[in-house]
Amino acid sequence: MGQTIKILVFTPQYAPDFGPSAPIYTALCEDLTQMGCDVTVVTGFPNYAGSGDWFSSSKKQFFEEERINGVRVMRIYVYKMPKSALWRRLIYHGSYNLFSTLAALRVREPDVLLADAPTLWSGLPLMVKSILPGVPFVYVVHDIYPDVLFRLGVLNNPKIIHLIERIEHYYYDRSAKVSVLSEGFKENLLRKGVPEEKIVIIPACVDVDFVQPLPKESELLKRWDLEGKFVVLYAGNMGLSQGLDTILESAKLLRAYQDIAFVFVGEGASKPSLQAMAAEYNLKNVVFFPFQPHQEVPCIYALADVSLVSLKKDIVVESVPSKTYTIMASGRPIVATVDPATEVGHLLSQAQCGICVEPDNPSALIDAILTLYRDATLRRIMGINARDFVVAHYSRQVAAHQYYDTIQHFDRDGHT
């Protein structure tokens, strides 16, 4: 490749969107730009969980282009992210595929593509812009499909599962590289027959200059009426895979501790049922807040005395949720509902920054919370360990350099 690498990125969410992948891709694209790459990202108008949609745009158009911190951002119409109804979800995925392909046709001769898996939202643009012209692409896997759909019970039809597997394998086979978050993801793909030399492990990293260990006392603490409270924080997506009802069961059993507050910040498919559950139990120690502006993220995590990483039992094997690194950057201890043998468990053990408890076990979660509630010194030590470890190993520049090293030697056929 020439001195300036032209990179085309496909991802449904990009800043200022609230989607879980938005900060990851925003940081990556901006860092690659600072490293001298010419980066174009094709993404949707902000539409995730109330962050807006194209109908709220005064321009009401299907395409819009802007430049943000050196990155060329091509925004497209996507059908607003639904929370239910399979046919509406299919329209959402179809709208991204269609309009991202049309937008990508405006980008001339990229050297390499980065595509956010699965093919549910990146298949058509990859086919048109990479596979048919022979441009190498890196397939970025943050969730392995259809496994996650099967584990969540979203899919149970063997024929449909087999079809999705065939489609995913088609793209694995034709990728130049497959980027995964962890060793567990790599092992999963190896079992599926993806060649080891094709897989590169690049974890989701965090901007440690942006998220820092701030004081707990803040205007936000006053505004949310949390002064004098021991805050147990869950911030992020409230979806099907998190198992957040276990946290509410724990809150119910801890009602006698009037100074402990369970704070949920975010949106997702499970939020209405969680709010209904909290109302049914009359939980005065539980509060919900929507996603906040991006600039508030450091202050939100600073509210916490303890931050939670919650996953259902069947989801925890390969995944390290990106919020884990954000919590660590904030200098707060973690309680994670995962088995110690999982990737999250290994990370917490290596960094000495948190406690693992059995998933779906409110009593175990209560024991961990109370351990940290009663021991301020342990909270402080774990918080320091977390910050030191994430700065050393998972700052945002680490991921950008790994991607740059991966793609800079591609030739037109995707060989290194």
Keywords:
6-stranded parallel sheet, 15 helices, Rossmann fold, 40% helix, 2 domains, 416 residues, 17% strand, alpha/beta
Task: Give your account of this protein's structure.
By secondary structure, this protein is an alpha/beta fold. The chain folds into 2 domains: 6-205 and 395-407, Rossmann fold (3-Layer(aba) Sandwich), CATH 3.40.50.2000; 219-393, Glycogen Phosphorylase B (Rossmann fold, 3-Layer(aba) Sandwich), CATH 3.40.50.2000. It has 15 helices and 14 strands. The strands form 2 sheets. It has an 8-stranded mixed sheet with strand order 3-4-2-1-5-6-7-8, with helices on both faces. Strands 11-10-9-12-13-14 form a 6-stranded parallel sheet, with helices on both faces. Helix 9 (271-281) links the parallel strand 10 (260-265) and strand 11. Helix 2 (86-104) packs parallel to helix 3 (119-131), helix 8 (245-253) crosses helix 13 and helix 11 packs across helix 14. The longest helix is centred in the first third of the chain and has 19 residues, at 86-104. The N and C termini lie close together (11 Å).
